[in-house]
Amino acid sequence: MTFDELFGRPFTIAARAPGRVNLIGEHTDYNSGFVLPTTIPQLTIVQLAPSEGDLVRAWSLNAHGDAEHAQPIGSGGSGGNGASTAAAAATAATAGISYRLGEERRRHDWLDFIQGITQALRSEDHRITGFDVRIESTVPMGSGLSSSAALEIALLRALREAFRLPLTDTDLARLGQRAENELVGAPVGIMDQMVCSLGQSGHALFLDTASLSYQLVPLPPSVELVVIDSQIRHQHASGEYRTRRAECEQACVALNVDSLRNVDPVSLDLADTLEALPTPLGRRARHVVNENRRVLQMVDALRHERLDECGRLLYEGHVSLRDDYEVSVPEVDALVEIAITEEGVYGARMTGGGFGGAIVALARAGAGREAGRAIARRYREETGAAVSVLV
């Protein structure tokens, strides 16, 4: 349904933000470390029109799809129960879901990202009124490609324009992270929001999450990225992701450092020090410390087009995520192992928070499309399951 059909008036603002794939630097952002993500072609698009009063009405093509699956609401509620009648469902598709500013409450669904943004803005004294918003996205949800951050940044861009908010692109990233940490309840770092806000096509964003300083690193024209969605869905707010963050905090206490970023990766006694930590804290810390080192090496290797080294670093990162951080799953491991044996592929690894999602591979320019198809075909032959080649 169009914006006019949904809300009975045209939209006045349109904004968009891309999804992202993380080349390397996984689970380092909430440890004040280094990351190297890049944007992908898939986008989230937001259409918005301000209104008087404090009512926010929101509709998502991805969540509703059609009237049959929409959720009916009243004119001022914060959501409602599903209706069994076609008339009620049609009403829901027209109205969307609504809430009032200042009455944001966690619902454990997509609306929490909208509510989290308005709550974060108002808590920092940014003046907004109610609005109508229509959302449409081609970023796969739960694939480790930052569908949530793309939504947050697209919405913030629209609200910044609609209400003339004095916010920088870095401010948008910070507010997006705050929304996800607080109302959504997902303890994510700031990497996703930063690259969705500041990233540029054809470049990786080399980000220091401690200082938020960043550099755009051109991707060599001699390579292509291949991104394949395993179709195994994950959820950042789930217990395992939260557990990993808590384990890193416990390791910091045991090592007497403010963050794992401050652990010297070339210390002569590092291996013994980490080995002495309680299980599994040593393995968690080892991944983060070595992953920070791999990011720095990857940046240098990309700048000098040492592509075999880039591939080796990708696979080393995957092995570390699989064995030390324990966030991969067998299906993703199988995809990576198939990818690294494919003609024209330098290396591959899981990407995103883990427990499902996608893999990223670095391929020779001109070979990426065929490599992606071959990986998907071999995976289906070996497992009987289908995957989706996204990039």
Written account of the structure:
The chain has 391 residues and is an alpha+beta fold. The chain has two domains: 178 residues, Ribosomal Protein S5, domain 2, CATH 3.30.230.10; 170 residues, GHMP kinase, C-terminal domain (Alpha-Beta Plaits, 2-Layer Sandwich), CATH 3.30.70. Helices cover 41% and strands 21% of the residues. The chain contains 13 helices and eleven strands. Strands 1, 2, 3, 4, 5, 6 and 7 form a seven-stranded mixed beta sheet that branches. A four-stranded antiparallel beta sheet has the order 9-10-8-11. Strand 6 and strand 7 form a beta hairpin. Helix 4 packs across helix 6, helix 5 crosses helix 6 and helix 10 runs antiparallel to helix 11. It is globular, with a radius of gyration of 22 Å. The two termini are 28 Å apart. About 8% of the residues have low confidence.
What general outline do the C-alpha atoms trace? Answer: globular
- Give the CA-CA distance, first to last residue: 28 Å
Can you identify the CATH class of the largest domain?
Answer: Alpha Beta
Please state the structural category: alpha+beta
- Count of DSSP E strands? 11
Give the number of domains: 2
Could you list some keywords that capture this structure?
Alpha-Beta Plaits; single chain; four-stranded antiparallel beta sheet; 391 residues; alpha+beta; seven-stranded mixed beta sheet; 13 helices; 41% helix; 2 domains
